[in-house]
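Ticket reopened. Same input as before:
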Amino acid sequence: MPRQTPFHPRTAALCSSYAWKEWAGYAAICNFDAHSEREYFAFRHTAGMIDVSPLYKYDVRGKDAAAFLAHVWSRDCTKLKPGRVYYGTMCNEDGHALDDGTIANLGEGRYRVTSSEPWLGWYARHSRAFDVSIEDETDKVAALSLQGPRARQILQPLVETDLDELRFFACDTTTLAGKPGWITRTGYTGDLGYELWMAPEDACHVWDAVLAAGQDHGIQPAGLDAMDVTRIEAGFVLQGVDYISAKSCITESLKSTPEDAGLGWTMNLGRPGWIGRDALLRERDRGGSAWQLVGLELDWAELEALYDAYKLPPHLAPAACRLAVPVYNESGKQVGQATSSTWSPVLKRYLALAQVHRPYGELGTKLKIEHTPEFERCKVSVTVVDKPFYNPPQKAKTPGVERRKAAKAAAKEAAA
Amino acid sequence: MSTLGSTSNPYDAIIIGGGHNGLTCAAYLAKAGRKVLVLERRHIVGGAAVSESLYPGFTYSVCSYVVSLLRPWIMRDLELVKHGLKIVPLECSYTPQPDDIGLCRWPDPDKTRREIARLSPRDADIYPEFGRAVGRLSRFVKPFIDSPAPDPLSLNPKDLWQLLGMGKAFRELGDDLTALQFKLTTMSGVDFLREWFESDQLIAPMSCSGIIGTFLGVKSPGTAYVLLHHYMGEIDGSSRAWGFPVGGTGAISEAIASSARSFGAEIRCSAAVERVLIKNGKATGVVLQDGGDELHARQVVSGCEPRLTFNKFVGAEHLPSEFATQVNRYKCRGSSGKVNIALDRWVDFKHRPGDGMHVRGDIAIAPSTDYLERAYGDAKYGDFSKRPYINLVFPSLLDRGMAPPGKHVMSCFVQYAPYDLAEGPEHWPEKREAFGDAVVDTLAEYMPGLKDAILHRQVLTPWDLEQDFGLTEGNIFHGELGLEQLLFQRPVAGWARYKTPVRNLWLCGSGAHPGGGIMGAPGGLAAKEMLKAGAV
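Engineering reply: fixed in the latest deploy. New output:
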């Protein structure tokens, strides 16, 4: 029986679709309306607001907090400055990915770590050598994410932090509509966005304030279905869908290294002392990872022709698809599987994330994917393309920094 | 003077007119490595797909205002999203009534069914069935708007195959649908819809698609086909809804222009063309107005309307007389105007207040079929409708950047406003404000607080559309979308493949196949034909 998040009184009142699902033991909304389209377009064109409280959250403190986090996570957290956030991967001793998540340095020796699975036991087991205290604060911190190009304009009047100066992957202790909390410039949509962290008793107050501030900006409460489309467009993998945590994976061959899961960029094999590194070094010496996570684009004309043969218009699922389908090379041999796919309403392209054998992961490689119109198995051409599929300029830009850059360039030009 | 465009080093192609089709054609040619120059008369690209700020803080989509048919293959080929294009779907179609809550048709089929059931439970059940039948017909039509028109007189095997394919697709529709197709091409919109539905409140707004940009009434024969043309409204590959481009329709032109530039095309604004240079029956370049500079090119492409192209830029002396006659017979009767309004605050509809989802789509002032037919009645005798059909959109509700927070922009497509006033089209400027008043008076019957909230108003009559945007007689589609002016007859029978009787002169605008609307298909297909023919 799923529990209610601190935002439940507000979200439940607006959820006219009654479409809920379980997320980490909490009741979470798939879409507020019969269809997630409006919520999707809010993420892309205005701002979508989504309750992300079910994320697992850990408060990590103590003299060795940074060293401990650098030991269990792929990132060197001893270099994480106060006010900054890392995105990283956690591996087991075999070098297989367990989970991915964020580590925020909140200052004064305090870190907040998020993940999609519970890891208190894992942390306890690996923290014995460190002077560190770890507390599960999942129930003690409510989280609200505001994502989209208008997020900054909407939030600025509500927070103390100067958002023109808050950089991509930065965090700050602040007030949220007068209540104490934190803001991080993070998210799961690949656009400008912020996540707000607060005490559960303040959750509804903050929800109301953000919704009111966003009224003239086209704000829209959004559910998980819309976010799923945006995260595929952004090229973000989802644990449990695009790769399976080694913790819950029974079949050895289905376990993934960070590289297999498209998370290779979050690790540095040159840095010693983190769990999984030794196994990954050995794998590198054997020739490296056998798999690669790639972006695929379906040949739309071919898909249309396929449906036309059944006298149908192309069928587009109303949400992203998480059903894994085989991927073949041109001679028909299976070389991998597509794990997430979606029609991108913004890009007018049909996209997929897939794990393929490494030689087939080169950009521009032509492959085939299984597609089943009217229950018949067919193949459609796909091309390996670059990720992120959608990458708007405002995602990582910071107005204050841009202004100083422009001023500097102007001064340089004037001097010349 | 630069060496570009001199006789020794000419452009591969000069495109007259920087509208969305001219730009699309330029982008495709430049993408294929050709040296291309686009000449736009106005200070800004876009033609009739243009966004301008005429009142501080507010942006108008001056002419065209929604998009549905922009071809997805063009969006992909030209990477328009990377160049800034964003389209938000319209939420709803709302038809207010003066004394009743009116009718909303939503993306949610069950919600729509409940709304229609209030008027007629029978119609409510038939509505989705109608959608499926017309959807199948659109599937039959769609391949034609994505490829050049077949030539029925040609013996070229390719054309014959294409025609054969057309016949095959037609047979595959099945007997019921074939009958439906004949009905669609011969009946009036209202008669056609009455075969399906009984509620006039439902039929009226549905029949409006059959008259947009056409000088016919909802009860005139042939309008059923135009209805289908609009039903093809396509977002996301499947026939679906209409959308609104973030930044107004000018943002579409800007994105295409940016894509064209990235491929190396040159675009010059404030560069009006005087005429096409023709030597020995061959187009060799253009002469500019102001200064009379000559620019040379291997091919000249006109994105302008055919009558403007041939009568003004070419001249009858360079055309076969039969062709010149046909061009002048080409129907461009303008029938609509546009009113853009800046609002100081939100104004409620009398019977459905609030700025909720019901107004985040298109709103049709079309309370009954008789109302629409009366509007046509005024126009038949050379006057604008006293109570016109209005298609209303609030862009600021869909894209908050169109107006300052809390304020709004209102875009009104107004029909009928006949180009040929009884006293002559040149008298439009004197009647402009009276026309604008008729629109505001009409809307105020549904939105009582409207008049006090208006900060600024722009009224465009068919005369203005002709003078300012080069739309002959103010026709928004570069020639009516009647069946007699489509496919291999657009603009002139035998000349539907973008070629013209003047060698090296091509058409790429909405006056060429497959026609008007922000599709980009004429521009894209013209470029592909030119490349295939080895002309550039």
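The interface with chain A takes residues 72-73, 75-76, 81, 86, 88-89, 91, 107-108, 110-111, 135-136, 139, 172, 235-239, 246, 357, 397-400, 405-406 of chain B (CB under 8 Å). Residues 233-240 of chain B have pLDDT under 50 and may be disordered. Please confirm and we'll close it.
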